[in-house]
Amino acid sequence: NSFLLSTVAAWGMAALELIRCNCSVTVEVGGKPLKADKTAKQFGVQVVKVPTGTTLKVQGFRRDIVIAYRNLRTVVDSKIQEGRLGFVARDGMQVVLSKAQPM
User: Can you say how many angstroms the Cα of residue 23 is from the centroid of all Cα atoms in its chain?
Assistant: First the structure.
């Protein structure tokens, strides 16, 4: 993922935002939730097209969370009627969106 982060930074001008969604986000790594950054100005996710592919960027946490399409294992949409959508990365990281408001 560090390669991907440097790629996104290097291609910042060439990145094309496809979707931005302000919503409640929870992220778990190894079964433990990550803490949100209370000083963050934006919370939610962005789907960004960069020269190396499409990435999911999670905003509002203390560390940069970027999942490349090739590192995405599963999209959980069984609770979409309840307003929840989940992404599971190959390394086991889980990102769950709720109360989504597209912009």
Answer: 11
